[in-house]
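I had to read the description of the data format several times before I understood it. Each protein is reduced to its one-letter sequence and a matching series of backbone shape codes. The format is easy to grasp once an entry is in front of the reader. For illustration, here is how one protein appears when written out as sequence plus structure tokens:
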Amino acid sequence: MKKLILIIRSLTRFAVPVALLLIVGSGHVWRAQAAAATLTITPTSGPPGATISFNATGLPPYAMAVVRFDGQIMETSPSFLFGSATGLLTGTFKAPTQNITDGPKMVTVEVGGVALASAAFEVSSSLAAIFIDPSAGPSGAKITVTGLNFNPSSLLTIKFDGQTMLTTPSSIVSTPTGGFIASISVPAKGNGLYAVTATDAAGKSASGTFRVNAATGRLALYPEAGVGTVLLSGRDFTGGSPVTVYFDGQRVPTIPEVPTASTGTGAGFSAVLSVPTLAPGQYQVLVIDGAAVAGTATFTVPAGVGSGAQGPAGADVPVLDKGARFPVTVLDASLNPVAGATVYLINNASGITLQMGVTSAAGLLVMTAPDVNNETWFRVESNSGSLVSPRRVMVLPGQAPAAPALRAEIALTNHNVVDGGATGPAYIGGRVVRLFDAVTGETSGITDGIGAFDAYATYGPAGITVKAASGVGSFAANTTSLLNTGGGGRTNITGFQAGAAPNPPAELFRLYPWITGSKDTAYTVTVHFNLVSRVGGGEVSQAGDVTKTFRRGDANNNGEVTITDALFIAQYLAGLRSLGEAGDQVNPVNSATPMNDSATAGSSIAIQDAMYIAQMLAGLRDASYTQI
């Protein structure tokens, strides 16, 4: 129990859901939570591959969850399911397309290995289905309608409450497999639930529902025009509820991945998003929370813009909850960035300077909304005499947002445990290279080290798997992994530091791959960090997926297997070559897998691997190195 207490103290917010799992996972408290949990899904029937939206309530606070379909763990959006303080969890997933039969299937939400809520979904291979995203919003909202299992190459019509809609594209024709994607704008309607129907030329039809809600949440963007990175702030949403962000009717990724409204007065949130590549024009930004409260704002992509989003000089930043971070830009008269300019954040009423900072080479500075107990304006000034944006910022009372200030930049290594001709299992290492500011992109240091991480790896096609996963360094003694979930193509791995916490750059875990397929097939392993947690507090969101590609027996990593690869392996074992991925180095995973010598912890490089390659080239073994 002492060890558990130390984990809770060191991991701060990230440790909360883990601690709940450990403490209440098998006790009466957990069962009380399970009895109150409910799950609703939309739609409740459809063909294999249908997109299903889920909404779970009554879960334990901050629960880390998985969704199962007919017992199989699903890949969801968002990929990391982390409930709110009020036990709310929302997201989507696609029904499996392989090894699935028609009939009723159970969808369950599972926390700590316990199924807390369930709902039934009817699979029908002949049934057409549509998915509406978002499924709620105000009149005028742009929504995407995705269709499955209609008649092939057929012209379709979409109706909203019986009214035929103009669509984008203007003419919808299903694919040879009966699918389509189109968008419509919600007509002017009063609040309520309305039917959306898609019908093909042969009369095959499918329906869904859309809830019209007047936009009651307040949204603001900074800047309101440009390209690149945009700060989004919301106000008057449902406290403790995750929100989903849509740009021109399409979901867009944000930092954090799942923004959550604060539980203070006004229920605000802040997030950073990247503007999609779009033609010049005005576009709608729509936010929906778990209770269907909606907010909208307009963003303009101007013609002839450069590579960075810049607000007009003297503009106001959106309203922010205290503790939220916001960017300040300083530009000269020609709109060039001003480096080294001193920026002041001044209380508009008292004239007292509360913060001071210096802009980077890009003319940027990230400031933090002050801790206030009432709505207060602050003005932003610079000593450079140049243009400052924003000119002022309004800070709202309430809880500081949970958005992480930092992101992790990650990389994968490709090595053996021991280099220099020795044999050890070949592995792929998950590394945090650095932490950098989510707004400016500049490197940010930490003084307390990395306290925890949560990541997963996906791999394919068939013929590659991960045999083992382990933590590195201070994570070695306290790491959990779940191998081969979701049909054998996914490994989840989570670690908590049990010693000196490392600072970036640091390797946190290792995956030991096993390739049994053909030398003619390229296999990939992709690693995704859900989050990194600092010991001193605060979560860091991942920066994106990193992928490694392998080919069984391709020791010199040139895309084919020849006698040179056998020679490279022999030279490595003789100490004449080193491990790596350059043209004169030996790729560890490719070299270790022709023979596959270890059934539990991955393969090591041995002279037999070179022999297997030679025998395959001589026609004594097939492309999968099986003896003929």
